[in-house]
Specification:
By secondary structure, this protein is α+β, with helices and mostly antiparallel strands. It is about 35% helix and about 20% strand. Strands 2, 3, 4, 5, 6, 7, 8, 9 and 10 form a 9-stranded mixed beta sheet that branches. A 5-stranded mixed beta sheet has the order 11-12-15-13-14, sandwiched between helices. The protein has a 5-stranded mixed beta sheet with strand order 17-16-18-19-23, sandwiched between helices. Strand 11 and strand 12 (about 255-265) form a beta hairpin. It is globular. Among the domains are: about 25-220, Heat Shock Protein 90; about 225-390, Ribosomal Protein S5, domain 2. Helix 8 runs parallel beside helix 10. Residues about 1-10, about 15-20, about 105-125 and about 395-410 have low confidence and may be disordered.
Length: about 650
């Protein structure tokens, strides 16, 4: 138990610490970049690249060069934009370049005077990168000269210097992430190239050059066809067969927003939407994705109504209509409201209606003008609906026939739910009997079942089905799910709508989750493809402020919550060592209650990449794991043991 803050008469103004300049960033980096892991490291690069892309969006730049230097721990980003201003700022009497790179919330994007639509509107990106870099060098070409200024950990090493006369314009930022902040400062060239390639598709007409000095390779990324070419790439990467060759595409650019959409249906049983806001990938979706999905469903329903299309015996749901959909959505708006500095989700409420208003009439008109294509797409939707209906009927039949012997066919340690309606039930696979008992007390008995596991399950990578079934824990999971295994797996016989892995938020819990994911990926992949598998997110911390109690899932959330507290409030922080330390009410309120919890849905974005990853981590060839361990040895002190 640790306590933050003081109480009583000894707590005075002298105890209040005021952080100035960029010191808050160095004290709490996770608040600004999401963490000090590999993702946070690469986020530094994305921040600088986004600034150059904003110059492209302003019509002032068409070429960006990103260089990963030979040491693998430093990068340079060069653009041919206007160049960061170097004149003296009228308010603070310093070079504008220095102000931008050393002051939080300083930039040219708070109004639409210079950047009508940009990815960064908080004015913190460049200064955060500077604060978290052991070295940064800014070189600016403008006003007929080359200008240069150096920084160390956000502190200027002298004033901006006029180096020489120079014809041309642009900005080059060199930075080296600080190894005092990041335990590992080696960039991943493949991650950089993939990210830059995505950007080049979203911004048709922009040329991005990636120079990998470690491998001696240069890649020029230029896709003038934009997202039309992108959807072809996504379709190929997913390995799915298109249900129709012609691609639906629509673009609308007006004063409020620019919306670009390309989509097609495939034979996949999933929907795959890649969304972007001002060129930034929104992995968690948001209001723009909601508008897209709404517009697609409305357009199809309107087409069906106009053409009196009424398939016999089935009703098309929204899921049936969107099943197999592959889509790239890109919106540009003047004032995006992102969820957090890492910008994973868009929250602008008006964007939903804007995207819906673009997609719905255009898609409906496209279907009307292509009746044979529309028939093929609707036929594909009817098949999806019939498959879904057959699954429900099959499960109901199994329920009806087995209700009398239900208990005798199931593992004794399973605590089943009361409902026989599969679509409303869920199974929690829980680590350990202690956590299992807590989950049983905190669950909703009507719809939530609990299956506790004893210890770590078998590593099923590259093992035969007969060998796997000799393991009692695997056998219990298979019998509980009731849908078979391997080639005999039939999702229609699945006894629960959702399977949720509930493990401790530590290294052992992550290991058990990985072993379970391996089993499901190798022997029940359809469970994942059907969107039935989830990972629970129990909290790691309980934070008390007076009578108010909040929870944090990780260190970054904890630091963010503590930093947001008023200076006169005292916080008590409890770290849970495992699920067994939580009482039933705490586990219910944070992890089990559908209205309050957060679940991670398990998806397979790339079958090839997933196969490669499981083979490397859990296969018989130990040399691959040795290489990964040695490459990531810098993270060893992050282990929770």
């Amino acid at each position: 138990m640790t306590t933050a803050g003081k109480s009583g008469s000894s707590y005075t103004g002298e105890d209040i610490e005021v952080l100035e300049g960029l010191e808050p960033v160095r004290r709490r980096p996770s608040m600004y970049i999401g963490g000090v892991d590999s993702r946070g490291l690469h986020h530094l690069l994305w921040e600088i690249v986004d600034n150059s892309v904003d110059e492209f969006l302003a019509g002032e730049c068409n070429r960006i060069v990103v260089t990963l230097h030979k040491d693998g721990a430093s990068c340079s980003i060069q653009d041919n934009g206007r160049g960061i201003p170097v004149d003296k700022h009228p308010k603070v009497k310093k070079s504008t370049l220095e102000v931008i790179l050393t002051t939080l919330h300083a930039g040219g994007k708070f109004s639409d005077k210079n950047y009508a639509r940009s990815g960064g509107l908080h004015g913190v990106g460049s200064s955060v990168v500077n604060a978290l870099s052991s070295e940064m060098i800014a070189v600016v070409h403008r006003d007929g000269f080359e200008w240069k200024q150096r920084f160390r950990r956000g502190v200027p090493q002298g004033s901006v210097e006029k180096v020489r006369p120079f014809r041309g314009r642009g900005t080059t930022i060199f930075f080296r992430p600080d190894d005092e902040i990041f335990r590992r400062t080696q960039f991943n060239a493949d991650t950089i190239r993939q990210h830059l390639e995505d950007i080049s598709y979203i911004h048709g007409g922009l040329t991005i050059v990636f120079c990998d000095e470690q491998k001696g390779e240069t890649h020029e990324l230029h896709h003038p066809e934009g997202i039309l070419a992108y959807i072809e790439k996504v379709t190929t990467d997913t390995g799915r067969k298109p249900a129709h060759e012609q691609i639906f595409a629509v673009t609308r650019d007006d004063r409020d927003a620019k919306v670009e959409v390309v989509l097609r249906w495939t034979d996949s049983t999933e929907e795959n939407v890649r969304s972007y806001v001002n060129g930034i990938r929104t992995h968690a979706g948001g209001t723009h994705e909601n508008g897209l999905k709404s517009g697609v469903v409305k357009a199809v329903r309107n087409y069906m109504e106009v053409h009196d299309f009424k398939p016999r015996g089935v009703t098309l749901t929204s899921e049936d209509i969107r099943e197999g959909l592959i889509c790239v959505l890109s919106v540009f708006i003047s004032d995006p409201m992102f969820q957090g500095q890492t910008k994973d989700r868009l929250n602008n409420p008006e964007t939903s209606a804007a995207v819906d208003g673009v997609v719905r009439p255009a898609l409906e008109n496209w279907l009307n003008n292509n009746p044979s294509l529309a028939d093929a797409i609707l036929g594909r939707m009817v098949l999806a609906a019939r498959a879904r209906q057959a699954s429900r009927e099959a499960v109901s039949e199994v329920r009806r026939k087995s209700v009398g012997v239900r208990k005798t066919n199931l593992p004794g340690k399973l605590v089943d739910c009361q409902s026989r309606n599969t679509e409303e039930t869920e199974l929690f696979i829980v680590e350990g009997d202690s956590a299992g008992g807590t989950a049983v007390m905190g669950r909703q008995a009507a719809t939530q079942a609990v299956l506790p596991l004893r210890g770590k399950i078998l590593n099923t990578e590259a093992m035969s089905t007969s060998k796997i079934l000799e393991n009692s824990e695997i056998r219990d999971i298979m019998e509980t799910l009731g849908a078979g295994i391997g080639s005999n797996f039939d999702v229609r016989h699945l006894r629960y709508a959702r399977i949720i892995l509930l493990m401790d938020a530590d290294s052992d819990g992550y290991h058990i989750s990985t072993l379970l994911l391996t089993f499901f990926f190798r022997h029940m992949p359809e469970l994942i493809r059907q969107g039935r598998l989830y990972i629970a997110q129990p909290p790691l911390y309980r934070i008390e402020v007076g009578k108010e109690v909040t929870y944090a899932r990780n260190d970054a959330e904890k630091e963010e919550l503590l930093a947001a507290l008023p200076a006169n409030r005292t916080a008590t922080v409890l770290r849970f060592k495992g699920l067994g330390e939580m009482n039933a009410a705490q586990l219910r309120d944070t992890t089990l209650d559908p209205s309050a919890r957060v679940l991670l849905k398990v998806n397979i974005e790339s079958q090839l990449e997933a196969d490669k990853t499981f083979h490397q981590l859990l296969g018989k060839d130990a040399s691959e794991r040795y290489r990964i361990i040695m490459d990531d040895a810098g993270f060893a002190d992050d282990l929770d043991v």
